[in-house]
Design a protein that fits this description.
Elements lengths: L2 H6 L18 E5 L11 E5 L4 H10 L4 E5 L9
Length: 79
Amino acid sequence: MSLLSMLDGGSGEARCSASGCGATAAHALHWRNPRIHSADRVKTWAACDEHRETLAAWLRSRGFPVTATAFGETVERIA
């Protein structure tokens, strides 16, 4: 199963991961929890333009390293 199919619910378009937001994702937020995962364990959230910084700030406030890319780009490691 691809990242796109997991995030879009089968509609063909990825949707923002922010609660209640149905906007099309334009960005990917790649992150990990350093307390339990090594640098090569990357999780990804989708984000629209409006929620990109809000979602990234939420992750950073918990001490999670975050890297933002255009949606569809992948990241192998998060330092």
